[in-house]
Amino acid sequence: MAGALLKQSVGTFRVSYPGESQSVSTFIKAPQPLDAEYFRTRLLGWFDQYGRTHLPWQQDRSPYRVWVSEIMLQQTQVTTVISYFERFMQRFPDVETLAAAEQDEVLHLWTGLGYYARARNLHRAAQCVVSEHDGVFPVESVTALSALPGIGRSTAGAIIAQATGQRAPILDGNVKRVLTRLHGVEGWPGKPEVEKRLWQLAEHYTPQWRCADFTQAMMDMGATLCTRRRPSCLLCPFEADCVAHARGEEHRFPASKPKKEKPVRQTLMLMLRDGNGHVLLEQRPSSGLWGGLWGMPQFDDHEALRAWLAREMPGSIVGEQWPCFTHVFTHFRLEITPVQAHLSRRGGHPAVSGRRWYDPDQPDSIGLAAPVKALLESLSSSSLL
């Protein structure tokens, strides 16, 4: 019965057979949506037995708590997010507290989660909610909510459904994977025509009732059963309906983004220490790579590094060069070569706007990029130059 509910439509594809003088047209069936009520019943039945219902943001639900969790969960696994979410809630229990905080502290609590634009947008959005909406999230519609920084259509839908129970379809990475496999949807989901088709399917299946559970169930399906690698098809409530599984082609769906060779960039990262063992850090511009975070001065080559030291920190002595290591970003690879240096005289150095002397043994609450944090931790146990 379940398989019979996979409706079919007919489309014509031209296929050429070897040895024939002309191509022959054959009809190949393309799957259409399952009956919506059947889909919802099976999905929610599975969720009631196996779904995740004890995650921190599912307790004491509010638009604020759900919003923070959804932003953290973008590009990040649940197991990683849990501890960050709990620390974040302890420090920023409501949107007013977050809006009033310094960006440095927000980025500090985000350090290690990556994709730091999410944290900057989170901070800006909190300020918008307080200043433009009197501290109340505009959850009356996807359009109103997605007008806030860092909130797209799917994230807005997830917040509304999870926090208010209102109907709002979602299409995050997990849901895309479920739908492309279930229906054998060809093409990279980032293509507008493919994404449009997936939104149509999401709209078709999303119910008017149990919207919070349905939304969580869709995400749980992708996260725990219909995983990127080695999906647990035998445990899936839609094993008999899934086009990708019937073909034995789960690995083909969803199609990957067309690959481009990631360019490689190089940088020298200056680890300059004063006589007290403190390390010079500079705050990066608010936009761009590691925006708003604190890091070590960076240079394209040794000549530029030495010229900067002579101009900004006269009397500095360049020390040894550490082995190069690679940090991978979404669009490129950064090869980082740390270079040690120290001031020749003891004592501190006058503070300059946008710079600070950081004590690795007594860390400040500031946002640090992952490679910078790792280097500072290495320096905390090393001897002075």
UniProtKB/TrEMBL annotation:
Listed cofactors: [4Fe-4S] cluster
GO annotation, biological process: base-excision repair; mismatch repair
Keywords assigned: 4Fe-4S, DNA damage, DNA repair, Glycosidase, Hydrolase, Iron, Iron-sulfur, Metal-binding
EC number: 3.2.2.31
SUPFAM superfamilies attached to this UniProt entry: DNA-glycosylase, Nudix
Binding note for cofactor: Binds 1 [4Fe-4S] cluster.
A molecular function GO annotation: oxidized purine DNA binding
InterPro entries per record: A/G_AdeGlyc_MutY, DNA_glycosylase, HhH-GPD_domain, HhH_base_excis_C, MIG/MutY, MutY_C, NUDIX_hydrolase-like_dom_sf
Reactions listed under catalytic activity: Hydrolyzes free adenine bases from 7,8-dihydro-8-oxoguanine:adenine mismatched double-stranded DNA, leaving an apurinic site
The protein's enzyme class: hydrolase
Family affiliation: Belongs to the Nth/MutY family.
Function field: Adenine glycosylase active on G-A mispairs. MutY also corrects error-prone DNA synthesis past GO lesions which are due to the oxidatively damaged form of guanine: 7,8-dihydro-8-oxoguanine (8-oxo-dGTP).
NCBIfam families: mutY (TIGR01084), PRK10880.1 (NF008132)
Official protein name in the record: Adenine DNA glycosylase
